[in-house]
Amino acid sequence: MTVEYDPSVRQTRAQEAPMTPSTATVYRDVRPFGAGAPVDLVAVDGVLAERVPDGAVVETVEGGGRIALPGLVDAHIHPDKTAWGQPWYTRRPAAGLAEYVRGDVELHDWQRTPLADRAYGLLAHAVSRGTRAVRAHVDVAPAYGLEAVTGLAEARERLRSALDVQIVAFPQHGVRRAPGAGALLAEAAASGLVDAVGGLDPDGFDGVGVDGEGPAQLDQVFALAERHGLPVDVHLHDRGERGLAPLRDIAARTKAAGLQGRVVVSHAFCVPELSGRALEELAELLAGAGIGLTTVAPSAHQVLPFRQLLAAGVRVGLGSDGVRDSWSPFGNADMLHRAHLLGWTTDARTDRDLAECFDLAATGGAELIGLPAATLAPGSPADFFLVAGECLPQVVVDLPARDLVVKGGQVVARDGKFTG
Ligand SMILES: [Zn+2]
Prior knowledge:
Layout: H1 7-10, E1 12-13, E2 23-32, E3 39-44, E4 47-49, E5 57-70, E6 72-77, H2 97-110, H3 115-128, E7 131-139, H4 147-158, E8 164-170, H5 181-190, E9 196-200, H6 217-228, E10 232-236, H7 240-256, E11 263-267, H8 276-289, E12 291-295, H9 306-311, E13 316-318, H10 335-345, H11 351-368, E14 384-387, H12 392-398, E15 404-407, E16 410-414, E17 417-418
Parallel strand pairs: 2-5, 6-7, 7-8, 8-9, 9-10, 10-11, 11-12, 12-13
Antiparallel strand pairs: 1-5, 2-3, 3-4, 5-14, 14-15, 15-16, 16-17
Helix pairs in contact: 3-4, 5-6, 7-8, 10-11, 11-12
Bound molecules: zinc ion.
Zinc ion is lined by residues 76, 78, 137, 235, 266, 321.
């Protein structure tokens, strides 16, 4: 279905004004969250407004009674590794982090399209599916140098009017296991191109007990964060005490460095293993240290217990993780689909369950990465998308086409196609 949009013939002047008039875009006849009577959403200077300012040039976009939903946040994605838009890549069986990492290098060497172009293609696609912001984790390792950092920075620049992109430089190959990675991570942190510095399994994969050299990984990561005033986002796949001990360590380091609210742990597969009092105590510890968590809802036993965590005051975001990369042929950078998968893996049943899954992809992610929430209310960012449908829970289940995507008040995708 095509949405009417032709500002060249629909521009009108509300009334004459002496100064340069602002431009208001009125998205007519939309239903916020699929509830209540249709309304008009008015976007002025990138945010939603109560009404059209006097003297503004008005552009009108017909919503046709569609549901308006807040733009989504992909709190954890790896655009540097993707083969999205490339010829089909055949993967071999792999087990364990070291084999996956080797597979990353093989796929990287196989790629014929520059990293910046691949990342741009994937992220433009994400925009067309309603994503307003991403936190992009990119590999920093001797095998690639800083190619992923500079490539993502280039893609971010090309997408600057359509998508907020945060770049996390992280040592996928370890810093102790991969000689030279620590220096590259330091170079990335000092480059001015990254928004956060990351780590990876500081005990299990890159711990002082494994074959490696140099200071403990978390010593290096937190030192860089403090030196450059950067947030931290650490991948933590390890389970049991091997995951919980670094998690407690990260909490202690976060408080000691005064980094509360600026540290995230991704995946945290050791957390879903807990229940009862043990889960409550850990959630209290994380909330007290201001540590957020991200999940990609990979399975029923690995998805974070996000409701209990949110209730305890822990910020939780949702992400895509790898998209058609060496680790997996799956993934699509569609955060509405990811909210659907979150509902599937958590056995969502009620309308409230489904709405909470959506909210994690919208508000949860925004809070996690420090963006103002897009609430569709006046004063909030004019970041939203329109879909045909009945109500929000039905949309989470049925995944309708994203007919129109708006970022900063401007149309950035229409009928599933990125328009910039
Ligand atoms: Zn990841």
